[in-house]
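ugh ok fine here u go
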Amino acid sequence: MQIPALQSVTVEILVDNFYDVFEPSRPGIVERVIPGRLPKPLVAAHGLAYLITLNRQGQLTRILMDAANDPLPLFNNLEALGHGPEEIDAVVLSHGHPDHYGGLLEFLARRSGPPPPVYLHQDIFHPKLFLTPRGRVGPWRLELEQLQAAGVQVCQNRGPELILDQVLLTGTVEATTLYEKGLPVFKRLLQGKEEPDPFTDEQALVAQVEGRGLVVIGGCCHPGIVNIVTYAERLTGVDKVALILGGFHLTAGGDELIHNTILGLREIDPELIMAGHCTGFRALSRLAAAFPDNFMVSCVGTKVLVGVAG
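structure:
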């Protein structure tokens, strides 16, 4: 599937689990926030929200990918970083866990004017649960009826789909690795019956930047980050990767998963890997050691720019 080559993709981390003012910047590539210059403090939270700006021949399109775990961090950080809901042209949800859609309804309610379209997978509406040593959590369910009541154009897909004539949603990710398997603690309800969650609803956003290659942005990457990037390469026919960004859900999977994922990422050989959210401290440490020159931690307020190669 051919996707257009953009002049640049900029991602601003609105909500993530980490906020560290001492993480280094890379001028012109990764810019960390300077807290003393903000109108109010930023808030880290167990959730995810990205503001993605696409530049296609000077025309800018802004996507909110995921909507945090709650309106509080989403709106606090939008305001702190000088943004408002009216800037957003479209919303993309990566999957159906509430730390990725918790602020969505409030975002739609506070926005003036018509709501932006919301792009999501058809399977995102199945109720989901999480098993912990201290008991069950959930079920949670994103309600289609609530989105429709808000006047939203809900754009559902199952397979890969080009949206906004600029970027690709992968649809259900086709697995190629043997080691990236769903964790047994995650469940979903299908026709009232509980089953292991296959995460058919999880998808990544994929853009192509002229002369640089692919930008692959995931949410929790439950299907596996190597599976996701490999699938994006296969869908687009592009094997050069400029940026991989998202939560990788590795620490909970154990040392073998971390080790094999590092090997898989080495084969992909991206210019930059940026992980945060659900990746886990142990996995982040291992990734930083394995990729000393091209790994960085995703922190709230960080801005990542992938532009045309000069």
